[in-house]
TrEMBL record, chain A:
InterPro entries: DNA_clamp_sf, Rad9, Rad9/Ddc1. Signal peptide: none annotated. The gene is RAD9A. One of its GO terms (biological process) is mitotic intra-S DNA damage checkpoint signaling. It catalyses: Exonucleolytic cleavage in the 3'- to 5'-direction to yield nucleoside 5'-phosphates. Keywords: DNA damage, Exonuclease, Hydrolase, Nuclease, Nucleus, Phosphoprotein. Component of the 9-1-1 cell-cycle checkpoint response complex that plays a major role in DNA repair. The 9-1-1 complex is recruited to DNA lesion upon damage by the RAD17-replication factor C (RFC) clamp loader complex. Acts then as a sliding clamp platform on DNA for several proteins involved in long-patch base excision repair (LP-BER). CDD domains: PCNA (cd00577). This is Cell cycle checkpoint control protein. GO terms for cellular component: checkpoint clamp complex. Residues 269-293, 310-386 are annotated as: Disordered. It is found in: Nucleus. Gene3D superfamilies: 3.70.10.10. GO terms for molecular function: double-stranded DNA 3'-5' DNA exonuclease activity.
TrEMBL record, chain B:
Component of the 9-1-1 cell-cycle checkpoint response complex that plays a major role in DNA repair. The 9-1-1 complex is recruited to DNA lesion upon damage by the RAD17-replication factor C (RFC) clamp loader complex. Acts then as a sliding clamp platform on DNA for several proteins involved in long-patch base excision repair (LP-BER). It comes from Mustela putorius furo. It comes from the Eukaryota. This is Checkpoint protein HUS1. GO terms for cellular component: checkpoint clamp complex; cytosol; nucleolus; site of double-strand break.
Length: 386, 218
């Protein structure tokens, strides 16, 4: 694999990596035919982010050496970010950036060609991994908002940087309202300030939502994409549905597109003392979504289960959980608990019960194993870019 | 009241026509920061499950529609029996009263002095001289301001008895002085420093319609 980025695009790439670093600790890098994809997911699986850079974004784009499969790497976010740590420096002195991986090497090489003949080479260790794919389809969301990033940037300005959650909704007169979300404090003596920002419909390029529609999501995670969109001067669109269903934040231009998919609080969360970002799981044997936390899940185990082809060797992956490729262990029939209890304990050595607790990582197994009726939100082609 | 285009207030009762509120200043400061480019600002006392000071700001906007930011700052209404604790302190008449130099200059000097000592001596006389002094084991630094002018003193007797060259001084915590100076963004219309020898310094600032007073004890 070899990708060469030049000029101003290096900074764009760096900015994207910074955005992704706000979400997850690991970066999934995969060169596809459509372009280079950089993805990440947060530890509680409540936020997923991905950028896809089209081949034209690069001066040179070679996803795989001829005759070889394109690599799929999982890199420590901090390591990758180190190459783009100082965006000011990147903008000023980096002329070219080359990301490459040759078949034999066990290192992903990020080489920055800077001014005055200086070359900075980062040799990053990585793990082979399966594709991190989230299944979502903005078109299926009933509400859409779209505005220049600048408008949204100004909209979040009054909120303190430390604020975790914010509620976005449509108010009277079709005004878009952003309000700081505070958990109900048991200790009533310490109350927090509530800030609300109201923007008129005219500031939006698209507003397709009814009055009263509202979602609550993590502002900190959203700021990651917002800062990218502001620096690239793009419009940001927000697709959302009922509370509890994930919201999709997207930016797009001719050379790249970015998606941040964030969990939103469901109705019951909004009244519970401890807001947990829960998303309805896709259950193989049951169509009723259960609220679950998946703090104990290990993403690699999901990755193994989600082979795209049944006969894939899976030999590239080095998972800690031994699992024959293409097979999915039987779902444990026990019902999920409705509240935030600990996961049912698993015996050591066996993979965790394969209830798909994550909204994003729907089953893309061969049809025999897939759930009877895919839930509407997840009914995207498995080829769809996650 | 002239400062506001609209002012409505009803206190506890006709004799005690005041309301005392306690709030976290950081909240108010943050709320007002968003008002930097405001077309209008309204402050109301509201009750949204608990008493709040609602600051409602209409922002300048490029587009035709306005943008409104609302901050609900939780406040505590102070019961009347505690009001006496919050009254302006009665101060003895000052020994010297002098106009202050440009606050920005004073601030940068005090900032530098802060690195050397925790206490600073302000001394002034009725001839328009003001000195800022610090004294440590290793070093003494004094900044002299001359020809500052003195406002007319309230009592004629005092001014006649006192030798105009004689300095009245007070030693104060330099951090408190810096806090006061750091908060001043705009040069006031009038800035007076009143010194009660060895007891207190009182800064009396007047900005158009707003008066600000600061008392720092020795």
């Amino acid at each position: 694999m070899k990708c060469l980025v030049t000029g101003g695009n290096v900074k764009v790439l760096g900015k994207a990596v910074h955005s992704l670093s706000r979400i997850g600790e690991e970066l999934y890098l995969e060169p596809l035919e459509d372009g280079l994809s950089l993805r990440t997911v947060n530890s509680s699986r409540s936020a997923y982010a991905c950028f896809l850079f089209a081949p034209l974004f690069f001066q040179q784009y070679q996803p795989a050496a001829p005759g070889q499969e394109a690599p799929r790497c999982k890199i420590l976010m901090k390591s990758f970010l180190a190459a783009f740590r100082s965006l000011a420096m990147v903008e000023k002195s980096v002329e070219k950036c080359c990301i490459s991986l040759n078949g034999r090497s066990s290192r992903l090489v990020v080489q920055l060609h800077c001014r005055y003949g200086v070359r900075k080479t980062h040799n990053l260790s990585f793990q082979d991994c399966e594709s991190l794919q989230a299944i979502f389809d903005p078109a299926l969301c009933s509400h859409v908002l779209r505005a220049p990033a600048r408008v949204l940037g100004e909209a979040v300005l009054p909120f303190p940087p430390a604020l975790a959650e914010v509620t976005l909704g449509i108010g009277c007169g079709r005004r878009v309202i952003l309000r700081s979300y505070q958990e109900e404090e048991a200790d009533s003596s310490v109350r927090a300030m509530v800030t609300e920002m109201s923007i008129g419909e005219e500031d939006f390029q698209q507003l397709q939502a009814q009055e009263g529609a509202a979602i609550t999501f993590c502002l900190k995670e959203f700021r990651g994409l917002l800062s990218f969109a502001e620096s690239a001067n793009l419009s940001l669109s927000i697709h959302f549905d009922a509370p509890g269903r994930p919201a999709i934040f997207a930016v797009k231009d001719s050379l790249l597109d970015g998606h941040f998919v964030l969990a939103t609080m469901s109705e019951s969360d909004l009244h519970s003392p401890e807001p947990h970002r829960l998303v309805p799981p896709l259950q193989a044997h049951s169509s009723t979504p259960h609220l679950d936390d998946f703090a104990n899940d290990d993403i690699d185990s999901y990755m193994i289960a989600m082979e795209t082809t049944v006969d894939s060797e899976g030999s590239r992956a080095g998972p800690s959980i031994p699992l024959s490729p293409g097979l999915r262990p039987p779902c444990s029939p026990g019902p999920d608990s409705e509240d935030n209890d600990a996961e049912p304990s698993t015996e050591p050595g066996t993979p965790p019960p394969k209830k798909f607790r994550s909204l994003f990582f729907g089953s893309i197994l061969s049809p025999a194993h897939s759930p009877p009726g895919p839930s509407p939100v997840l009914a995207e082609d498995s080829e769809g870019e996650g | 009241e002239n400062f506001f285009s609209e002012f409505q207030m009803e206190g506890v009762s006709a004799e005690n026509n005041a309301i005392y509120l306690e709030l976290t200043s950081e909240n108010l400061s943050r709320a007002l920061k968003t008002a930097q480019n405001a077309r209008a600002l309204k402050v109301k006392l509201t009750n949204k499950h608990f008493p709040c000071l609602t600051v409602s700001i209409e922002l300048l906007s490029v587009s035709s529609s306005s943008r409104i930011v609302t901050h609900d700052i939780p406040v505590k209404v102070i019961p009347r029996k505690l009001w006496k604790d919050l009254q302006e302190p009665t101060v003895p008449d000052s020994d010297v009263s002098i106009y202050l130099p440009v606050l920005k200059t004073m601030k940068s000097i005090v900032e530098k002095m802060r690195n050397l000592s925790n206490h600073l001596i302000i001394e002034a006389n009725l001839s328009g001289d003001l000195n800022l002094k610090i004294e440590t084991e290793l070093v003494c630094v004094t900044t002299h301001f001359k020809d500052l002018g003195n406002p007319p003193l309230a009592s004629e007797d005092a001014s006649q008895d006192r030798d105009p060259e004689q300095m009245a001084e007070v030693r104060i915590d330099i951090r408190k002085l810096l806090q006061f100076l750091a908060g001043q963004q705009v040069n006031p219309t009038r800035a007076v420093c009143n010194i009660v020898s060895n007891k207190l310094v009182h800064f009396d600032l007047l900005h158009e319609d707003v008066s600000l007073q600061y008392f720092i004890p020795a």
